[in-house]
Write a structure and sequence with these properties.
Layout: E1 22-24, E2 35-37, E3 41-43, E4 52-55, E5 59-61, E6 69-72, E7 76-78, E8 82-92, E9 96-108, E10 112-125, E11 129-143, E12 147-152, E13 160-164, H1 171-198, H2 207-244, E14 248-255, E15 259-263, E16 266-270, E17 274-275, E18 278-282, E19 288-292, E20 299-300, E21 305-309
Helix pairs in contact: 1-2
């Protein structure tokens, strides 16, 4: 059915062509099933609480995005901002640009661009975070690449977590593959023990045992292939994680007390307000270090933050 004939909530402007951006001009009503829209969408109305949109391309709106579910294969631009009330789930396969974001879950495939602030958000960015004129207050930011921000935290010491050195595209894969490899190894060992019992020299097998022997032989061959693929993937993914891990945090104005910088199992909690500009990176030894504007050398982060190492 052509886009301009859709009967879904959020009417499309008459005269829209199938190969042109879809225009949403009528109010969007919450619905039990998501509204699915292929291609690029220009939304001229508010995205209200409870709305569910799935977009095949980019999504651009000059109006407010509220506590909605918005998934776009391309980039999302929310010029008026995102007011999530703790229920918004906004996911962009490309970049996400917003005036502000409040109490929302944001997952960004490429870069995040914030113009004013993010307050109480749960943010995962696979690429860089560009917020040189914005503040990140409360919530969690998991940063895949470089972070540029004006302010971290607030005067009231709202807990604000920033996870550095993360490779969000690959680390979840490694977390799944490692226990899978252990399970396959255990199954291989058990099958091999049973197969060896049936394969003893001089042992005469009945038809049922011969059938079981054939099953185990085939299963062991399959497990050998699976283990090889699994181990190869773990090694390759691990190499890429080590290569791509980036710690590059640049704060222009201030880092407030209560900010927690996480690198691996180490959590650095800032004790007092730190004036910017300040840049935080990883030293050759793997520890967090910082350098203020005008400094000639890096200093260990533990000089300005309390260090706690979580049990792995």
């Amino acid at each position: 059915m052509p886009l301009h004939e859709t009967q879904q909530p959020g009417a499309i402007a008459p005269g829209a062509e199938a190969d042109s951006p879809t225009l949403l001009v009528d109010p969007i009503e919450p619905a039990p099933e998501p509204i699915t829209l292929p291609g690029t969408v220009n939304c001229l109305v508010e995205v209200p609480d409870g709305a569910r949109l799935r977009v095949g391309g980019n999504f651009d709106t000059s109006e407010l995005v509220r506590a909605a579910q918005l998934l776009a294969a391309g980039s999302i631009t929310a010029s008026a901002g995102i007011s999530g009330r703790g229920e918004a789930d906004i996911r962009a396969g490309g970049s996400l640009t917003a005036r502000f974001a409040e109490a929302a879950r944001l997952v960004v495939g490429r870069s995040l661009v914030l113009h004013r602030e993010a307050i109480g958000c749960d943010i995962l960015v696979h690429g860089s975070t560009h917020a040189a004129d914005a503040a990140i207050i409360g919530g969690t930011l998991v940063a895949g690449r470089a972070v540029r921000v004006r302010v971290l935290g607030s005067d009231s010491a709202v807990p604000t977590r920033v996870v550095l050195g993360s490779v969000p595209l690959l680390e979840p894969l490694l977390q799944k593959l490692t226990p899978l490899h252990e399970e396959l190894t255990a199954e291989h060992a058990a099958s091999k023990r049973e197969f060896d019992k049936l394969n003893q020299p001089g042992l005469r097998l009945d038809p049922r045992q011969k059938e079981r022997q054939t099953e185990l032989s085939y299963r062991l061959h399959t497990l050998d292939q699976l283990l090889l693929r699994c181990m190869t993937t773990i090694e390759n993914a691990g190499m890429q994680v080590r290569k791509l891990r980036t710690v590059d945090l640049d704060v222009r104005e201030a880092i407030h007390p209560g900010v927690i910088l996480v690198l691996g199992a180490d959590e650095h909690t800032v004790r007092a307000r730190i004036e910017g500009p300040i840049r935080i990176a990883r030293s050759q030894s793997g520890d967090l270090v910082y350098r203020r504007e005008g400094d000639n050398s890096d200093r260990p982060m533990k000089m300005i933050a309390s260090l706690r190492t979580r049990a792995r």
